[in-house]
Amino acid sequence: MRVGLTLKVKRLAVCQFILICVLTVTWCIIAYAHSVDAADIVGQNSGLSKSAPELQLISQLPGQVARPESVNKSWQTELSNSVRQPSPYQPTVAYVYVRLNTVSQINLPDKTYNVSAEVVLEWQDGRLAFTSNNQEANTPLKFNGNDVDLILGKIWSPSFTIGNEIQPRETQNRSVQVAPNGWVRVYEQFNDVVKFDADVHTFPFSNQTLTLAINSALDDRSTVRFSVQEFNFSSPDPSQQIIGRWSLKKLNANTKSFNRLDSKLSFPQILVLMHIQPKPEYIIFNFFIPLFVIFIAAAAVTWIDPTQTAPHTAPRVLGTIILILTTITLKFALAREIPAVSYITLTDAVFGITVFFLILSLIMSCTIIFLKEYLQKDVLAKALNINFRKAYPLLYVACMSTVFLLFHVVNWNS
């Protein structure tokens, strides 16, 4: 019995030993696999493809490496100095380049438009100068992706915002370049929805000015000064970049300043102005042709003589009523393309005069019918009809010319 029990104990001990060995080997394999994966992740996040100057520049940035809470005052002073402007005695000049890729969805009722643009900021910071180990001494260091936030978060940079945007801009691409002499270049490509002030006094002939306000986000004019170096469209033909019924008339940019509610200081601003005008085909097909058709139809209706026979009475009155309703419908259709305003536009005046003359034609038709059918004054009714059909087109053209001349002389666009 004792011999059999001893054999069982030995077998149990051997099984336990084997089980422990298997678990130990399994744990070692798992630990090795995790260490390899961790090394790969660390290598990817730390940018193993970076050159020696890049790693040296990042390592020199204060606060790049996590430090204990008990940092000394000297390091705090060093960190605060690193995010200050390069020159403490005069504003740093930031050279700005603006390139417009597309301008689309110009919405007059909402006073907004979509823009896709590229902005480059360049400035000199001698504290970032380094000695390049490349064969070409002037080869800059280039940072993309997550490294952009890393670099810009540790150095001074003149960040910008779009002052007249209605929602945060959508950044498509960003990069940072640092030259050996400390010349920094920040590039950003973005899409944004921007608002502008629409002037529709002479709609549909009115020109519009699309504004793009590039404001300094944090630094006032005592810290940074913007200098516009370039502003243009990415294509030599801007009509390919402006999508819709508009064409570019003029493009310019001004350096200005603006005030914020939380500060009494003034901040630098670059105001890009795109002066656009409606394309001629839009005005012809949406304004002149419908108006001309209404004028011809209204003048033709006056040649229907209600004094001859009774059946001619209904087409003249009914035709005039249809033209009145058609003109009002066209007016409301064009009104949907402009914002609600408190002043009288050229469209209001033109269609108002058209409706007035159509109502006058309707009243004259009813008067002629009344003179013939009820007062039995056929001669007077016929003479009134002949004189009105001759005077109607002349009076209409004269009134329209006066309205166009008045809006042109007053120059509502000024």
How would you describe this protein?
The longest helix is centred in the first third of the chain and has 44 residues, at about 1-45. Helix 5 packs antiparallel against helix 6, helix 5 (about 280-300) runs parallel beside helix 7 and helix 7 runs antiparallel to helix 8 (about 380-410). The chain has eight helices and ten strands. The protein has a six-stranded mixed sheet, covered by helices on one side. Helices cover about 45% and strands about 25% of the residues. Mean pLDDT is about 80; it is low at about 35-50 and about 60-80. Strand 1 and strand 2 (about 110-125) form a beta hairpin. The protein is of the alpha+beta class. It has helices at about 1-45, 50-60, 75-80, 145-150, 280-300, 315-335, 345-375, 380-410; strands spanning about 90-105, 110-125, 140-145, 160, 170-180, 185-195, 210-215, 225-235, 245-260, 265-280.
Quick overview:
This protein has helices at residues 2-45, 52-60, 73-82, 146-152, 280-301, 313-335, 346-373, 378-410, and strands spanning 92-107, 112-124, 141-144, 160-162, 170-178, 183-195, 208-216, 224-233, 246-259, 266-278. With 414 residues, the protein is an alpha+beta fold.
